[in-house]
Amino acid sequence: MNTTLIDIKKLNLFYVNFQALKDVSLTIPNKAITAFIGPSGCGKSTLLRTLNRMNDMIPGTRIEGEILIDGKDIYANEVEVESLRRKVGMVFQQPNPFPKSIYDNVAYGPRLHGITDKKKLDEIVETSLKSAALWNEVKDFLKKSALGLSGGQQQRLCIARAIAVNPDILLMDEATSALDPISTLKIEELAQELKTKYTIVMVTHNMHQAARVSDQTVFFLNGEVVEFAETESLFSNPTDQRTEDYITGRFG
Amino acid sequence: MMTVRKEFDSGLEKLHQLIIEMGNFVENALAESMEALKTTDVERAKAVIAKDPSLNQMEEKITELGSKLIATQQPVAKDLRRILASFKIASDLERMGDLAVDVAKVVLRLDGQELIKPLIDLPRMAEIVQQMTYESIQSFIQENVDLAYKMSKDDDQVDALYGQITRELYSLMMENPRNITQSSLLSFVGRYLERFGDHATNIGESVVYLVTGSRPDLNV
Fold first, then answer.
1. pLDDT tens for residues A16-50?
2. How many CA atoms lie within 13 Å of A210's alpha carbon, on the beta-carbon side?
3. Residue A235 with chain B: CB contacts under 8 Å
4. pTM for the whole structure
5. Residue A162 sits in which domain range?
6. What is the pLDDT of residue A57?
7. Residue A197: inside a domain, yes or no?
8. In chain A, what are the helix, strand and coil shares in percent, each to the nearest 5?
9. CATH level 2 (architecture), domain B4-212
10. Closest Cα of chain B to A236: distance in Å?
């Protein structure tokens, strides 16, 4: 297994009085795909959102424990959330391109981080779109609105936008659940390529997607980690009966 | 919340039933062919041969149903192992049926001639492998790993008897060359029964795989 990039230690998360995560400890390896699975309300999306502090915006959220990325506590006082989110990009369930041109969508992050040189931006836009396997489909109309793209293309554009700021980690929250099967397969293939450069953590309702795509799988139930294992072994011979019941569709 | 996968579970249940049916079938086929051998009853042997195609059909049904379940239900973990184990067990049972047919064919070649010696060890061997077949299917039904491991011990007994039988038949051949044809036919029967036991042991292995996810070698 690759070296650890994200080290979650005894994490507890409360939404006011409701405890959404209970004593979660996980080590997520570098440059691999880790999938979170589990029934609705099990805490998998909550945990994903703690990794770039998206939960900060929800009033009444309280966190105990530590999350270290590259050895640094991301909840330490001196951490700037903006720079954390540059390092930890995110793709959501619904493709959410800005109502701007394809080019401007991808250039948005780099511009925000102060890059103004046209040539440099052109280069970032091209490599990001290429990495997101979208370049060939859009290279001739970069100035057209991103909203004219298909759902699958929009999602790949969002991936291009996320990687344009050169993050270390890419979080995917149900990133294919709104897409058709062909677009889904494209994104899954893309994830395989992206993991050579980025660490990917994905939440998916589709167990078979976790089985197809990920290297490690974590099964959550009621805010707790039930089982964390190599994907192959978790899906062929889980050690916990609750995992077995869930993945064989007899529970949840 | 527990959910029921009605369609899938009924498919798995059907696979289960087919395996049990095949198990009963081969136990019976072997018993019949051995009876036919003891009494050199050609008609009884022919009946065993005539029935064999329906065993093959059962195996095909298992392959078809199992493939359909894999294609449509995407089984994982134990569900997947159950289907894979069913394929393997069905193929062992089908081969066991063929071996019962091979014994019956020996009866046809004996063509009613009187046996050079009363059969003692071959029926004993047949009894053990029949018992093994029964137990292998029981271990499948109960998912009983201990019973599956017992196959290995039973199989040692079968192998020992087989050695004894061949030695005895060799000495009969040396005594009188006119015994050669029948002796070699009977030693074939010993070989078929020994193979029969190996397949029962394989079924035990499949059961261990189904339950634990790893495949031991019980055939040593």
1. 999 999 999 999 999 999 999 999 989 999 999 99
2. 29
3. 76-77
4. 0.83
5. 32-42+83-247
6. 84
7. yes
8. 40, 30, 35
9. Up-down Bundle (1.20)
10. 4
